[in-house]
Amino acid sequence: MTVLEGLLDGLNERQRAAVEAPATPLCIRAGAGTGKTRVLTRRIAYQAEIGAIDPKRTLALTFTRKAAGELRDRLAGLGVRGPVNAGTFHRAAYSQLRTRWAERRMQPPGLLQDKRRLAARVAKQAGMSLSKAEVQNAVAEIEWAKARRVCADRYPAAAAAQRQGLELDPALVGDLYRRFEAEKAKQRLVDFDDLLMLALQDIDDDPSYAEARRWMFQHLFVDEFQDVNRLQFDLLRAWLGDRNDLCAVGDPNQAIYSWNGADAAYIDRFGEWLPGATVLELTDNYRSTPQILAAGHCVLPAGADMLTAHRLDGPTPTVTTHADDHDEAAAIARALRDAKGPETAWSSMAVLARTNAQAAKLAAALGRAGIPHRVRADARWGDPDADPSADGQRSPSEHADAVDVATFHAAKGLEWPIVHIAGLEQGLVPISRAQTSAEVAEERRLLYVAITRASRRLHCHWASERSFGNRTAHRSPSPYLRNILNATETNPATSRRPAARGRMG
Length: 505
Fold this sequence. Notes:
By secondary structure, the protein is α/β, with parallel strands linked by helices. It has 20 helices and 18 strands. A six-stranded parallel β-sheet has the order 3-2-6-7-1-8. The chain has a six-stranded parallel β-sheet with strand order 11-16-15-12-14-13. A two-stranded parallel sheet has the order 4-5. Helix 6 (about 115-125) crosses helix 7. It is globular, with a radius of gyration of 23 Å.
């Protein structure tokens, strides 16, 4: 078998077409469990092998250091000759800026590690009486604005037009935003969003430098393209210049970060942004049973494409009603213990919830039951790159045998044979603050992400009563639970066909 044959071996027809496609710009819309990372790495390796791209002139962009590390590991395993530069947008921008600062013999600014602490100090100095939660909300709004390239002066109007149900006065946030930026400048500090903005400014302001940068990285690949925000997209276009050598991979049905600036329009309208683009679809799912895929599809907005399952039939997803959230947590703990056996590791199971507060309570319940567990944080938005220059590192806890407890957002990109989804109630799923049609549609996609993390067994839970601090509230089931029940009562095997050669991962 030749090298090229090896790079195409095991791919189904659509996967192979995505790997071999000669044209760029190219958008690969890859549904959940369709082998997105496998196709992306095979494409880079294949195009390098035929001489279409130079690995040393290739930049692969991801959203987490872990994803970048996995990309590099896979490419090395495929025998790509020459290192491919793979990292987050922040890491790539920071690398560009450090080189630029060194060329100019400039003292680099400090990197702000804790926005909330600085924002709290600025608010106090300005006489703003803000709680810790309000400071956190204000920082989130500043991040939302910077992701959309909205300056402090324009923030109040933009927030009034685009943000509904804000707990803080937009004028107050705009004032804090302006003071926050001024204090950073005074202390010669930059934050993670500034890295992207400064890198873009460098290219826009210096055509000669822009050409040198574009020569250095001539072939661009972007993973999880549905999560790109305006600032990242503008920087990506600046890195491309008048070239079109871009391959983007993503899934519009897993667009779940618009609240923090991500804009799925860039993948939905890829051909409009980049005329002449080729768009390919991957729809063969190798992760989940037909029953789980049917449950996931039924919660998506109308018109979403159905993935084709390639796993054998599995058990019907269950829906369980509990008296209260304490009973729910205890029942999930018992179910996990009952499922544990010689062939079922703790790490093959996960408990997912919509909010951090729910996840914390569930983790505490597992702790009381003596079940080993770990709580997974969402590295994408909590602290996207504590050190943008660092390579991807794997936490030792990732290899421990423990049940994962995670929010829906933190579960994205992961999978487990057995998944319990807790708190499927009105007000949590969809979350009460989702008011517009776009926000509700995103809540549907978020539940879809949670459901499609399961490969073999899916268990859904809701409680008739739930405590919020010292208050207990009566609850009603999520409107999506009826869809799940209806979908699993039909014959999901009709969406299944004999397994093709390709596979996920």
